[in-house]
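Quick start: what a row looks like.
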Amino acid sequence: MTRVKIQSIIEHLDHDMQRALVDAVSHVYPDVKINRAALYRAFTRAVGRQCSTWVPVREQHVETKCHHCGNKT
């Protein structure tokens, strides 16, 4: 089984995750004004508290590429 550093993944996907989180909350609570940055900070803190640093992920959910040639391994 492969492991990923979940906090690093969330930071890497920062922009897209912020938009998706705001979209989801807006869908559930359409009349609530959302501070995107504050919501995302709270979300990342919650992930840090709820998840261990390294999270196991099944290898079928991970695609790796060679650092030299870019081909899938």
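That is the whole record. The beta strands are 2-5, 54-57. The first helix runs from residue 6 to 12.
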